[in-house]
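Example record for the data management plan.
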Amino acid sequence: MKLQVTICCLLVFACCAVNAYSGNGQPGCKTQMELEISVFRNNWDATSYWKCDELNAPATQMKCPDEMGFVDSLKNCVSWDEWEWETPVAPLSEVDE
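Corresponding structural encoding:
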């Protein structure tokens, strides 16, 4: 019985891990909404973020000032004392490769 419970837990965890977004968060800037939102979290670097300036042009990587990290929910750089990890989300569109 314990083995069955353990296997079920592992399967649930594996499904969650597969469905989690693991990209860097760079939007393709292909929608008007992305231009209006303008800035997006860089999921691989908490000290930088992506900025959409032009429709259908890849977002530009921007850096926060020294000693600061980007908080997606605030759409702003904050001091490390205020910074909190947030769950990554997929962008509205992605960069064509």
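Summary line stored alongside the record: The CA atoms of residues 17 and 94 lie 20 Å apart.
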